[in-house]
Amino acid sequence: MAAKRKTPVKTRNPDLIRGVGKYSRSKMYHKRGLWAIKAKNGGVFPRHDPKPKAPAAADKPPKFYPAEDVKKPLLNKRKPKPTKLRASITPGTVLILLAGRFMGKRVVFLKQLTSGLLLVTGPFKINGVPLRRVNQSYVIATSTKVDISGVNVEKFDEKYFAKEVQKKKKKSEGEFFEAEKEDKKKLPEGKKEDQKAVDATLIKSIEGVPELKAYLAARFSLKSGMKPHELVF
Amino acid sequence: MPFKRYVEIGRVALVNYGKDHGKLVVIVDVVDQNRALVDAPDMVRSQMNFKRLTLTDIKIDINKVPKKKTLIDAMEKADVKNKWENSSWGRKLIVQKRRASLDDFGRFKLMLAKIKKAGIVRQELAKLKKETSA
């Protein structure tokens, strides 16, 4: 196909009324410069013959014909959009985790990853929650914000949190009967350093607010008389 | 035990149900046995059932169905707002509203403050107990 123009050509033949152009066929021939194209090509309009195609490899007959017609699945061009972040969740918001190992912990939100999950940190020194991914649906956003300007979270993405691929080890007969001795997975030192780097500036800004550190260290729980639908977070 | 607060023109009442819940209104006329015509500076004058109103101690001096401006002036003269906010009932409502609008951090700080206060009270009590027993 000929290359498409970036902007469509404005027609050189304005409409007098719908269906009737201002210029006749012969005038348009002149306006479009077809005479010049012909002159350049020696009196004939340039032809582009189809290029001779390279001979295609002979198709081998398939090994297998299915007994019934096989249906082709419908074409799906859907591209999933990144999860919409709730307006109440902004970098530095204190979130309450609602499920999982750290249920009830109050945690600082850092950023939203490309998969839609939220990157949060305890900070680790304060409440034991490391740099972690968390789903937006399992979180209550409070209106308390922490100053997060000094923290650099550029390097954290989905790949950082991917599971390590275990190399499968071939076992000999004797080793099968030994108890499965797998080393307890140790946290690599790099991740500990990352945690400390992120938390250092965070903890400073948290200690600037009175009682915020104790707040983050405590867990949230519903007490008698608290009505969740009437609570303001 | 006779009644002390009467439904009369100029009686200030608190709305306890409906769209205007929590507002202070003035009874400007009585429609019939069950309903009153009620008005407030920030409200369109309307009728309300007495069951929706709780009478207060405050009464202002107005004629039947005054103009809005007259009503507002009379309320200013009687200083309804300050009288209400300094009364124990009014203060309780203000505290309730403030407690309900506390966010999670506020509730945490409140809890710490309560614990601290209780600790101080207990210390003083222990001191007094020691003095009386000694």
Automatic annotation (TrEMBL), chain A:
- Record has Transferase as a keyword: no
Q: Which PROSITE patterns does the UniProt record give?
A: RIBOSOMAL_L6E
Recite the UniProt keywords alphabetically.
Answer: Ribonucleoprotein, Ribosomal protein
Question: What InterPro entries does UniProt report for this protein, alphabetically?
Answer: 60S_ribosomal_eL6, Rib_uL2_dom2, Ribosomal_eL6_CS, Ribosomal_eL6_KOW, Ribosomal_uL6_N, Translation_prot_SH3-like_sf
Where does the record place the Large ribosomal subunit protein uL6 N-terminal domain? 3-61
* Position of the signal peptide: none
- The identity of this protein, by name, is 60S ribosomal protein L6
Q: Which organism is it from?
A: Hibiscus sabdariffa (roselle)
Automatic annotation (TrEMBL), chain B:
Pfam families this protein is in?
A: Ribosomal_L14e
> What are the record keywords, sorted?
Ribonucleoprotein, Ribosomal protein
Large ribosomal subunit protein eL14 domain segment(s):
45-117
Keyword tRNA processing in record:
no
Highest rank taxon of the organism: Eukaryota
Q: Which family does it belong to?
A: Belongs to the eukaryotic ribosomal protein eL14 family.
User: What is the name of the protein in this document?
Assistant: Large ribosomal subunit protein eL14 domain-containing protein
